[in-house]
Amino acid sequence: MTDANHLQLQISTRIGNLQLNVQFDADIQTLVLIGPNGSGKSSLLSLVLGVLEPDSGRIALGGEVLSDSSTKTFMPVEARRIGYLPQDYALFPHLTVRENVAFARASANPSEPRAVRTERVNALLAELSLTDYARRRPGALSGGEKQRVALARALAAAPRALLLDEPLAALDVHARRKVRTLLAAHLKKIALPTIIVTHDAAEARELGTHFAVLEAGQMTQLGTWEELAAAPKSRFVARFVASA
Amino acid sequence: MSGRIRAERTAIRTLGGVLVAFLVLPLVALVVTTSFVDFEQGLSHPLVWPALRLSLLTTTISLAITVALGTPLAWALANTKSRWSHAVETLSQLPIVIPPAVAGIALLFAFGSRGLLSSENSSLTGSTAAVVIAQVFVSAPFFIQAATSAFRHVNPKLVVVARTFGARPLRVFFRIAIPLAAPGLVAGAALAWARALGEFGATLMFAGNLEGQTQTLPLAIYTAMEADMRAAQALAIVLVVVAFALLLFVRATMRRSLSAEGRA
Questions:
Q1: Angle at which helices B178-198 and B229-263 pack, to 10 degrees?
Q2: Which of B160, B175, B176 is opposite residue A84, by nearest beta carbon?
Q3: Closest listed residue to residue B172, CA positions, set B79, B54, B100
Q4: Quick check: B119 pLDDT over 70?
Q5: Predicted confidence band at B259 (pLDDT cuts at 50, 70, 90)?
Q6: Order of strands across the sheet with A18-27?
Q7: Could you say which of A78, A138, A153 has the minimum Cβ distance to residue B166?
Q8: Which end of chain B is more exposed for a tag (fewer CB within 10 A), N or C?
């Protein structure tokens, strides 16, 4: 584990009707955020991503401050280099698979020579078994394929961390298990600090190394799956680990 | 019972039919009361070609100005939710509802010989530039409205994701927003062009009616009515055909964009 995996969250902010208070200071591999609907999970992702600015607090990743209200620091989304996979993957529908990935690469690294970029894009497509789909548009892909494109595209921009919001929710039940196993394998290989939001216990257990529980805007428990299972601090946690 | 149902249904359709007949009748009359010979002779009237050329020139320029400035405005409006942006959006729609004569007077007070923005000897009145100004004034709101609506249909997640890669605002605008909103932008441009092509009142009052300088097709029709009704009729038919073609184009574009949205 390196310094690059260190995540610090000291957030106190109001988002709509929710008061979000989060204190977190640890190295992360794959951190899964769990919690009831409306507990602030997606809002927390938006804060880390830089789409939302906290009223007060500090967010730092890998030793770099992303946002700090005391010094009025707020790094814009464009500069944070955090890969984001939203629930529906948000692939660009007018671009082919290859163009989706190349767009990310060229955005992150505009001065890279074309040949180098093409090589890198090809490598990513191959790595995620997408070479055969390179010329298709997202509309012609299955859910699992879309997810791999989204992953390849995020990686093309050389992110320092990944945020995945309900990565399997857009898939039908039959595809989920297979895609989940594949995603777990990819995430392990990628080895970037990753935060995943999910409401699915089986998915959380397979993908996560550590778990943070968010309830009504408060972080109520933090630990490994075994720790959560051994001593659940709330009925939500007890029910959640039991349902995996 | 069933007879009564049928009768009521017929009543509803008849009422609707009366209005459709009323809307179509003048256009039918315009076409059927002429002959091919009259049409040809009408088109050879000396008023016709200078007006046609001027209309093409001015509407092309006004459309270019409208699209070049209106597209960024629409993107900004679609992405802001402040009270200011609401105010700006409302203001930008104002020329749609104010009468053309009012637009003409207002343009005179802004850019005319004693207007806010003109010096002693540099009045725009009577110039081709004035025609373009009048056209932009009355037609831009149609483009802004359609473009703003098209941009609002672009999935905001796509923009967020593009930004996470480091894509700057201009890159997002040109590579993501514009291609995705393209059908709506094209439809809006067609509507704005149609409005500019038909612009009459504001042009007459602000730019005047000078052949070759400010006399666009609608003004030429107005002038021709006094001299040669066949020329007026021929020009009118040309404008109706162009307008009808544009309408079909806009509807087809919108339909395509809706079905593309359904697929995505």
A1: 160
A2: B160
A3: B79
A4: no
A5: low
A6: A73-74, A64-68, A56-61, A6-15, A18-27, A218-223, A210-215, A30-34, A194-197, A161-165, A82-85
A7: A78
A8: N
Distance from CA of B188 to the nearest CA of A (A): 20
Phi, psi of B163 (to 5 degrees): -65, -35
Q: On the CB side of A225, how many CA atoms lie within 13 Å of its CA?
A: 16
Ramachandran region, residue B217 (left: φ > 0; alpha: ψ -120 to 50; beta: rest): alpha
Partnered with residue A85 across adjacent β-strands are A164
User: With an 8 Å Cβ cutoff, are B164 and A139 in contact?
Assistant: no
Determine whether A147 is exposed, middle or buried from the number of CB atoms within 10 Å of its CB (0-12, 13-18, 19+).
buried
Q: B70: how many CB neighbours lie within 10 A of its CB?
A: 28
Each residue's pLDDT tens digit, A163-201: 999 999 888 888 888 899 999 999 999 999 999 999 899
The tokens describing B139, both together, are 């037609």
Backbone angles phi, psi at B47, to 5 degrees: -70, -25
- Compute the count of residue pairs across chains A and B with CB atoms less than 8 Å apart: 62
Is the complex ipTM higher than 0.85? yes
Cβ pair A149, A183 in contact under 8 A: no
Whether pLDDT at A134 is above 80? yes
Residue B257 clears pLDDT 80, i.e. is over it = no
Nearest-10 crossing angle of helices B178-198, B128-152: 140
Residue B264 pLDDT: 46
User: Measured between alpha carbons, how far is A153 from B161 in angstroms, rounded to an integer?
Assistant: 10
With 0.80 as the threshold, say if the pTM is over it. Answer: yes
Range B82-99 average pLDDT: 93
Of B64-78, B123-137, B159-173, the least confident = B123-137
Smallest CA–CA separation between A207 and chain B, in Å?
22
What's the average model confidence in pLDDT over B143-153?
Answer: 96
Give the torsion sign (CA, B121, B123, B125, B129).
Answer: positive
Tokens of B244: 């009808």
Residues 155 through 194 of chain B touching chain A, CB cutoff 8 Å? 155, 157-158, 160-168, 171, 175-176, 179-180
